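The aim of this short unit is practical: by the end, you should be able to scan a pair of folded records and say something sensible about each. We start with the first protein, listed as its amino acid sequence and then its structure tokens.
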Amino acid sequence: MRITRGMMIDTTLANIQRNQERTSLLQSQLTSGSRITKPSDDPTGAAHALSFQEGLDTTEQYLTNIDQAKSWLNTTDSALDAVTTTLHRARELAVQASNDTFDAQDRAAMQAEITQLQTHTLDLSHAKFGAYYLFAGTRF
């Protein structure tokens, strides 16, 4: 078989074109920082990458949910601590008021403080975390 100059030129041009395509692909990968720039580069690798990205997105959402739950619990705990403190003070006042050493004026002052404690407890029962009520069970 005879190799003609035309065949050599065609083979050389085909090799140059393949090398240019490969160089273009490598440059694209270098500039993007990714081995896979389009799904046709590596279909299996692209599918794995998408699967891993979905897993990362799910994990990030879990972490966000955990942070929000912690914040909600901390807010709820603070409100319940305040209610507990208020109830302890109301109990102290009730015990003091039951003692005969206090006159009507002292008991009236205790009554006023207990009324304030009731109002404070009611306000705490309407505490919110973002747009949600902590204790109401519904969003208004």
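Turning to the second protein, read its sequence before its tokens, just as you did above.
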Amino acid sequence: MERVDNMAIDVKSQLVHLSVLQELDLRLHKLIEKIDAVPNQKAEILSEVNIVKDEMVALTAEKEANEKEKRDIEAVVADATEHLKTFESKLYSIKTNKEYQAALKEISEIKKSNREKDDRDLQLMELIDAATQKLTQLSTDLADKESQVAESVAKLTAEAAQWEAERQACEAELKAAEAHVAPQIMAVYRKVRSRYVDALAHVEAGICGGCRMKITPQLHIEIQRANTVCQCPSCHRVLCPVEKTAEPA
């Protein structure tokens, strides 16, 4: 644990300056977090459009595959129908019963196959119609989503610009506040802050407000006297007493 002992330094005043400094540091930390999160937030917003686009691409590919299958089926059925007509036209020229029965069997199989293909053709037609309607709806949804996303991105961009302006102002305030802190105390504060966002912790009822560990009575007395800058033996945060609120008259 480091201590800064210097009778020429007004420790109470320094702790007040450190408190102001920490408030600015915390504000700056939050602003930087917001600014750093902007790219991911924009990407998340834009992904909403990509979700709709991806659905449209997948549905379009499915629709095109069904359309191709439908064309192939119709071509096969057309060929089979022509083949069927040829068979039927030759029925009456067949001389033997065996050949006649074989021809009837083949005609029956062709008709059965055509019926099955017609059923599949109808099913594909329904799927294609449903996909067409869905794509029309998705196209409308995409236009709406793109409008919403553009608005959200514009709002976020404006907020990011505001946060950046606040960050620069906060950094200027921080620099001015640092001038009020003694260099040796600033060195301790910055060293602790490299580990914690809050380098300064209040002590109440003998407990460090940072790590919640109990401090010794002797250290508690030193903190109250404010003749030296004290640090928590456990977490090394700079310690200061809790300011007591005056009781109403």
